[in-house]
Amino acid sequence: MCSINLLCFRKATKEERELPAIEVGRICAKIAGREAGKKCIIVDVIDKNFLLITGPKEVNGVKRRRVNVSHVEPTEKKVSIRRGENDEEIMKAIDEETLNFLREPLKVKL
User: What percent of the chain has pLDDT over 70?
Assistant: First the structure.
């Protein structure tokens, strides 16, 4: 997987493929769309192509919305939440370290 602060496109290694990356509570980096370069949390897996994500909006400006799986890149960090929780419950589940991780900007690798 790419470094947490870098966005890049490459083939996943064997260890990365074994990581259950697309799951509820996983912190991801958006790599496409108007919120590209921001981090978000997976709230629900709708189907094999779409996810429901949130920032939460108060933290980094990412609205709760449906996104394509190919538009996010998972990180190794995870928040312990239940499927479909609202932003207030997610804010309670986020500790200070994770909150700072969500707020720090990504560096785009050219």
Answer: 79
Residues contacting residue 54 through CB under 8 Å, at least 6 positions apart:
40, 41, 43, 62, 63, 64, 65, 87, 90
Largest CA distance in the chain: 37
Instruction: Compute the radius of gyration of the chain from its Cα atoms.
Output: 13
Please name the helix (run of DSSP H) or strand (run of DSSP E) that holds residue 99, with its range, or none: helix 96-103
Tokens 């720090």, located at residue: 104
Distance CA 12, CA 102 (A): 23
Distance CA 2, CA 104 (A): 16
Q: What is the pLDDT of residue 1?
A: 47
pLDDT at 106: 82
Residues 82/84/87/93 CA torsion (nearest 10 deg): 0
Sorted by where each starts, the structural domains of the chain and their CATH numbers stand as 6-108 (2.30.30.30)
**Predicted confidence (pLDDT) at residue 24 exceeds the cutoff of 90:** yes
